[in-house]
From TrEMBL:
Domain of life of the organism encoding this protein: Eukaryota
UniProt cross-references to InterPro entries, sorted A to Z: CRAL-TRIO_dom_sf, CRAL/TRIO_N_dom_sf, DUF6824
Organism of this sequence: Cylindrotheca closterium
Segments forming domain DUF6824: 404-485
Gene Ontology molecular-function annotations: phosphatidylinositol bisphosphate binding
GO CC terms: membrane
Annotated stretches, region: Disordered: 1-32
Protein name: DUF6824 domain-containing protein
Length: 491
């Protein structure tokens, strides 16, 4: 049976589901955690990594250790916030920023002060660090510094879009290195899969830029990802069929230093290792250092699953991860028919909004053609295979979050958090808007609407049936223009 590696000297409390923390799925046969019972040749090569994780867990208090186990077993609670808690954290954040500013922050302040002072931007770092203000401020400064390094100073004070990726980045994105699972885990957390077989064949800067785009621009705008964290699953299955090339230590450290600055909290991290010839030794030689570079919070939420593909999938199910939509089937084959469906769905949603993707100056027709062609090819392939995960067949019902904007005169709309942020956002730009010539004001309202869209903010209006419906970008722009005029009249 598979061995989900753990140590019996790690104390743990019963989880909130009422059962002990073991690798037992109520609907499947138990998965043994006994290394001798697993009886896999070469399993001993994982011992250094196991001992490292055990040592880190032993540094925690009993309460911290129990929280880590709850998160790994998909019974942990999301970050609880109150308006007063957020207000105090943001005030403390501002005070610390005044004392700890770096060059990248100064550049961002010069380019777009509203961006780095936006409460929603700063709140991402606070949530990633469980409202530890000191860590949050340091991470924001490091994030801006790495953003400037890998994307350029001119992009440090705005959201990163698809057009900010170069050709090599886009090829890596379309290679299927990352996969966002269609379903979420038992507690509603998003699940990100990644395939390590390509690591030794790519450049660290390409992976960093793609990781930033996927983690920050696609996943993080979802408030649930911010408050509940992200689940990651590593697969040693090969996507290319080429011989595995192990990444060097310089690659690992470069990528780890950059991604540590991203405001993403990993609530559990799973490493799936199939017991094929020489596979364990090869994977352990680079996965051990990767895990060792993680922050303590993420490190102690790491779990290795060793065995056959069926045993590994049973183990994942026992940790609350649904297996019906995994990117690897029960035979260990990559499910090519769904590997990019998540990305095409994202692109479709951005196209529907007609403003969420800001095209960078100098972007080429070839870039547009590349993605249009890739999108059509994948859609045609999926239709031909008769798979139900066809990107453009699904039209999920949109529901407003507290970050979105509700249009209307009712009490709900007036008191909605997103509306308050919307008014403050436009108040910061109203003076500039009033000074523009009349023939340039429309262009400015388009830019402001685009800026909101890149932050994942959407506009909703109430229908006759009392439900909230998302409106088109052109209508949203009109609302931006209308409110700017209203603010000018109040002056």
């Amino acid at each position: 049976m598979a061995s989900s590696i753990q140590h019996h000297n790690w104390s743990c409390r019963p989880c909130k589901g009422g059962h002990q923390h073991d690798d037992t799925d109520h609907n499947t046969a138990p998965i043994t955690t006994n290394r001798q019972a697993a009886n896999h040749d070469g399993l001993h090569v994982m011992q250094p990594t196991e001992e490292m994780l055990a040592s880190e867990l032993n540094k925690l208090s009993l309460e911290e250790r129990a929280e880590a186990f709850d998160d790994i077993h998909c019974v942990g609670e999301e970050l609880k916030e109150t308006p007063g808690m957020i207000q105090k954290a943001l005030a403390d954040f501002e005070e610390m920023v005044k004392k700890d500013r770096n060059a990248a922050y100064e550049i961002a302040m010069t380019q777009n002060r509203a961006y780095v002072e936006d409460p929603s931007f700063r709140l991402k770092f606070l949530r990633a660090n469980m409202h530890d203000v000191g860590k949050s401020v340091r991470q924001m400064m490091n994030s801006l510094q790495h953003k400037a390094k890998y994307f350029g100073n001119d992009k440090v004070a705005r959201e990163i879009t698809l057009d900010d990726l170069n050709e090599e980045d886009k090829n890596l994105l379309l290679s299927g290195f990352y996969h966002v699972q269609e379903e979420r885990d038992r507690t509603g957390r998003a699940i990100l899969h990644w395939f390590g077989g390509m690591l030794g064949r790519i450049k660290p800067e390409n992976l960093i830029r793609v990781a930033y785009f996927v983690w920050i621009s696609i996943l993080l705008p979802d408030p649930v990802v911010q408050t509940k964290g992200l689940v990651t699953v590593y697969h040693n299955a090969s996507r290319t069929g080429k011989e595995f090339v192990m990444p060097g230590m310089n690659f690992i450290m470069t990528v780890s230093n950059a991604t540590a600055s991203f405001p993403v909290r990993f609530s559990s991290m799973h490493y799936c290792l199939q017991t094929t010839e020489a596979n364990l030794a090869l994977n352990n030689s680079f996965l051990g250092p990767i895990v060792n570079t993680l922050p303590l919070y993420s490190k102690v939420r790491s779990r290795f699953h060793v065995g056959s593909i069926i045993e590994i999938q049973y183990a994942l199910r026992g940790h609350g991860i649904p297996t019906d939509t995994l990117p690897v089937d029960m035979n260990g084959n990559i499910r090519e028919d769904i590997c990019l469906a998540w990305f095409y769905n994202h692109q479709r949603e951005q196209a529907e909004n007609n403003c969420s993707i800001v095209r960078a100056p100098g972007s080429t027709k070839e870039d547009k053609a590349l993605f249009s062609s890739s999108l059509r090819t994948a859609q045609t392939r999926q239709v031909a295979r008769g798979n139900r995960h066809v990107p453009f067949d699904v039209n999920p019902s949109a529901k407003p979050t507290e970050a979105d904007i509700l249009l209307g005169r009712g009490r709900v709309a007036q008191s909605w958090p997103g509306n308050s942020n919307f008014r403050r956002f436009l108040e910061k730009h109203s003076a500039e808007y009033d000074m523009l010539p009349r023939n340039e004001r429309k262009r400015r309202t388009i830019e402001l609407t685009q800026e909101l869209g890149t932050k994942g903010i959407r506009f909703f209006e109430e229908t006759e049936s009392g439900e909230w419906a998302k409106i088109e970008c052109s209508e949203a722009r009109k609302k931006v223009s209308q409110l700017l005029r209203t603010l000018r009249k109040k002056k």
